[in-house]
Design goal:
There is one protein chain. By secondary structure, the protein is mainly alpha-helical. Helix content is 64%, strand content 0%. The longest helix has 39 residues, at 3-41.
């Protein structure tokens, strides 16, 4: 074994870790979007969303 083996091995391990982190972030983002879509379909809204004015609110549209 020579010095190049350790250098290439460290680059390979670093690249593998970066790929794993990118994939994990991508899959987690997809899962969160899916959760938000399910909540939205169930009628649950975000707190930051504007409230929908209804006839019982006393607000005229």
């Amino acid at each position: 074994m020579n010095h190049a083996f350790y250098v290439y091995m460290s680059y390979g391990i670093t690249a593998a870790v970066i790929v794993v982190l990118i994939c994990r972030t991508w899959f987690d983002g997809r899962a969160r979007r899916r959760e938000l879509a399910e909540l939205d379909a169930a009628g649950i809204r975000r707190r930051s969303a504007r409230p929908v004015a209804t006839a019982t609110d006393g607000v005229s549209a």
